[in-house]
Amino acid sequence: MKAFVYQGKGLKVLEDRPKPELQEPGDAIVKMVKTTICGTDLHILKGDVETCEPGRILGHEGVGIIDSVGAGVTAFHPGDRVLISCVSACGKCEYCRRGMYSHCTTGGWILGNEIDGTQAEYVRTPHADTSLYPIPEGADEEAYVMLSDILPTGYECGVCNGKVAPGSTVAIVGSGPIGLSALLTAQFYSPAQIIMVDIDDARLEVAKQFGATTIVNNSDGKAAETIMKLTQQRGVDTAMEAVGIPLTFELCQDIIAPGGTIANIGVHGKKVDLHLERLWSQNISITTRLVDTVSTPMLLSSVQSKKVDPVQLVTHRFKLDQIIEAYEVFENAAKTKAIKVIIEVA
Ligand SMILES: [Zn+2]
Ligand SMILES: [Zn+2]
């Protein structure tokens, strides 16, 4: 089968690989239909993710059709259409029982990281009963691909942890796929104001179409000033960090209102200063989280009933043969205006 393989720093290769086989009774082999590329895949290609070794098939998102299941799988059968969660969960370990699937002792984010992933014609998915979700026949598969990772990540790490509430003021720093997913799902709670911050006008324009009440371009480094003015010097109740660099996390600290919550979503590779000399008396909370995908069943219902339409995030479509080109388009998002690229496998 064809597969996209990380072969070391900066080395992207489309290779021929043997079709994966069942290894554990809880495994399923899924024939991929559609997958996508994540910002995390770009981190891997830069050599930032130590757990992912050269030779790994990348990808942790997608929808497909069950090809075969192990003897222990009871919830799925060959031919079933499924959503693959970016997080594999056994459902039995201490962390899974507490709803922290991302810390599952035999799962978590392993697909396209510690084991081969979804950017291929077939993938082996461990703990299939508790890591796959059925999707209805005839459903818009592209919308569901957004449910593997980015929608639950924006919702759980940003909206839930950030305690977005009716009438509240929200700032989302970063208008990429994750920031936009947080923007879409924050609207479940009808906040009074959602301010989107980025340095790319095209992405901010998209944010406006997706329901941002105000957009702020921080190319001049004055976003904090602008946001304080917009909120009568009060600041925002929720500040979500959806980039993963020191500058954007510091911005969240500059705009948080007394009693507010800074919800970190970004993947940070560098240390960031925490300004306790200012914040110690401000009754604020800071949250961190790896997506647990516990909200996936709720998000599936919301997509099915069209309460949220994540297909708006899809800007480009490619075949698996063209995946190298798809990576180039996704990497150069400022120029290509890419948000999410769909890879059609079958
Ligand atoms: Zn991802
Ligand atoms: Zn577990």
Secondary structure: elements and pairs:
Layout: E1 2-6, E2 12-16, E3 28-36, H1 39-45, E4 56-57, E5 62-69, E6 81-84, H2 94-97, E7 122-125, H3 128-131, E8 132-134, H4 141-145, H5 150-160, E9 169-173, H6 177-186, E10 193-198, H7 201-209, E11 214-217, H8 223-230, E12 236-241, H9 246-255, E13 256-264, H10 276-279, E14 285-287, H11 296-304, E15 314-319, H12 323-331, H13 333-336, E16 340-344
Parallel strand pairs: 9-10, 9-12, 10-11, 12-13, 13-14, 15-16
Antiparallel strand pairs: 1-2, 1-4, 3-5, 3-7, 3-16, 5-6, 6-8
Helix pairs in contact: 5-6, 8-9
One zinc ion binds near residues 38, 60, 86 and 149.
Word description of this protein:
The chain has 346 residues and is an alpha/beta fold. It has two domains: 2-149 and 292-344, Quinone Oxidoreductase, Chain A, domain 1 (Alpha-Beta Complex); 152-287, NAD(P)-binding Rossmann-like Domain (Rossmann fold, 3-Layer(aba) Sandwich), CATH 3.40.50.720. Helices cover 27% and strands 24% of the residues. The chain has helices at 39-45, 94-97, 128-131, 141-145, 150-160, 177-186, 201-209, 223-230, 246-255, 276-279, 296-304, 323-331, 333-336, and strands spanning 2-6, 12-16, 28-36, 56-57, 62-69, 81-84, 122-125, 132-134, 169-173, 193-198, 214-217, 236-241, 256-264, 285-287, 314-319, 340-344. Strands 3, 5, 6, 7, 8, 15 and 16 form a seven-stranded mixed β-sheet that branches. A six-stranded parallel β-sheet has the order 11-10-9-12-13-14, with helices on both faces. Strands 2-1-4 form a three-stranded antiparallel β-sheet, with no helix packed on it. β9 (169-173), α6 (177-186) and β10 form a beta-alpha-beta unit. It is globular and about 60 Å long. The structure holds zinc ion (ZN) (2 copies). One zinc ion is lined by residues 89-90, 92-93, 95-96, 104-105, 107.
